[in-house]
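thought: fold this chain, then report.
action: predict
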Amino acid sequence: MLGPDAYLSFDLDQPEFVSGLRFRFSLVDPSGMLPAVKVRWQTDSRRELGLYTCPYGSTTGDEVVLVVYIDDWISRVVFIPNDRVSSFRMSIIELLPENDQSGPITKSPPRRD
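observation:
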């Protein structure tokens, strides 16, 4: 069980251009409510953290895949599973590179000179 302020934070060794992030996870809210998952990320082009909020569509803890489209250089990712006490399991986190055929089609990354 995780408290209402639980999160996972990942800092990359160096900024990397990604078309998106893919998460595979399961989540159970003991009260039976649908959790709201949040993903935040730090980019080179914006000072504030980007934010994507997604309702988790299961009350039974089914494993789901969530893809967040970014198309930018990122240096940090924060995954917030719920705003209430919950049981949470992350099985995969993937950075989707620009040319990944299983991810989104993206623009070209800006040059980093």
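thought: worth noting. The first strand starts at residue 8 and ends at 28.
final: tokens above.
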